[in-house]
Amino acid sequence: MNAHQDQQHQPSPEGTRLGELWSILPEESSRVDGPEGGELAIGGIPVTRLVEEYGTPLQIFDEAGLRRQVRRFVDGLHERWPDSEVLFASKSLPVVGMYALAQEEGLSVDVAGGGELQLALAAGVDPARLHFHGNAKSDAELRMALDAGIGTIIVDNDDEITRLERLLTKPQKLLLRVIPGVDAKTHASQATGGLDSKFGLPMDQAAQAIARMQAHPLMEFEGVHLHIGSQILDTEQFAEAVEKISTVGTFDTYDVGGGLGVKYTYDEVAPSVESYLDAIVEAARANLPEGARIMIEPGRSLVARAGVSAYRVVTVKHTGKTFVAVDGGLADLIDIALTEQRYEPVLANRLDEAWIETAQVVGRQCESGDLLVDRAQLPPARVGDVLVMATTGAYSYTLANNYNGALKPAIVFVRDGEARLVARRETYEDLLALHAPALAG
Ligand SMILES: Cc1ncc(COP(=O)(O)O)c(C=O)c1O
What we know:
The protein is of the alpha/beta class. It has two domains: 7-62 and 306-431, Lyase, Ornithine Decarboxylase, Chain A, domain 1 (Beta Barrel), CATH 2.40.37; 81-301, Alanine racemase (TIM Barrel, Alpha-Beta Barrel). It is 28% helix and 25% strand. The chain is built from 13 helices and 21 strands. The chain has helices at 18-21, 47-54, 63-80, 96-104, 114-122, 139-148, 158-167, 203-215, 235-246, 273-287, 300-303, 335-339, 428-433, and strands spanning 29-34, 37-42, 45-46, 58-62, 84-89, 108-111, 130-132, 152-155, 172-179, 201-202, 219-225, 253-255, 293-296, 307-318, 322-326, 345-347, 357-362, 371-378, 386-389, 410-415, 418-423. A hairpin with an 8-residue loop joins strand 17 and strand 18 (371-378). The longest helix has 18 residues, at 63-80. The protein is globular, with a radius of gyration of 23 Å. It catalyses: meso-2,6-diaminopimelate + H(+) = L-lysine + CO2. It is an enzyme of class 4 (lyase). This is Diaminopimelate decarboxylase. Its cofactor is pyridoxal 5'-phosphate.
């Protein structure tokens, strides 16, 4: 029996919330015996061993759980609506190894910009399965995508149509992004479907843009696209979006974007993939043409749970509060500062000990907002402990930055007791490589 099947039987020592934590940690997480008692293992390898080998901060992905989650989407949508396609919203984990995994498991891929396009091509993704997003694509990016033989471009605006009129030399599949006027219940920075959105065209401007594309001999206009936002926990909002997109007209393809939310904390409740797919497909049956092709673009909900961030505790201070400071921070986990996302921490090397201390888990960047967890419940932390933040697989690497000269973390995929490095840690040489030498004297 693997760790995933056995999860209900994982230990939940008194004075901890470990019993609940198993549903937030990667599917292939388990407790193993270590020198200090119970330890957290992912994909069959103790986290302590992974951080010894690869250093910290380290992003660890449960590859088996990740692949399983991808299949839930791909198979689940296909069973419900055979003429369908699931796109990996690659901004959630833009890593060559992930693009390759996505293709292997039957996903197409959405890229938003030249950089993501390059990563996808480097992973060997079939260009015909790539979809190109963006509200401000440049001529150079469009040319790069066309030269690569991109499958579909999701057109955002009239200027982009003008650009394509200039650039197209052969037939090109296109979708148009529309603004559905659905105010997603999520953090303001993650809502993209409201009438004031910068993405796409409002419904009343869509018809004219569509007519322009339909009239062009090289533009193969296939249908419409929307995306109402991210970390959405109410499936009704997706059903509403499907209903809204149906009012634009009758087309071959309807791409209803991504956005399914995930459970980050003990108290949060997130819809299952199945109930999300049910909501979309029910709304599609009620509103969309029977023979239409449906596309969805999950990102966060594909990769968030499979990934964790591991840190070393560098210092513990009992001043105004108890501060547990780790060797990472908002340079590798900025979502907390951007969207007030809360994550749950655990001391990976001391799994069985009671969580009797309330601590501020802080990072090492020079901001008081670099607070990884406010009032975390932990065993009294010690220097050298390994602190793991759960459910950090989505958008953490994407948003990693060099604040205070921080180096981008390494990423490992672990599976069946084997680890493989999919992105090495940035080095000081990498950091310096961008800069011209200072003038002598
Ligand atoms: C166009 C588009 N599709 C899909 C996604 C993926 O969203 P999520 O990661 O919430 O599933 C995004 C990200 O916000 C997006 O902008």
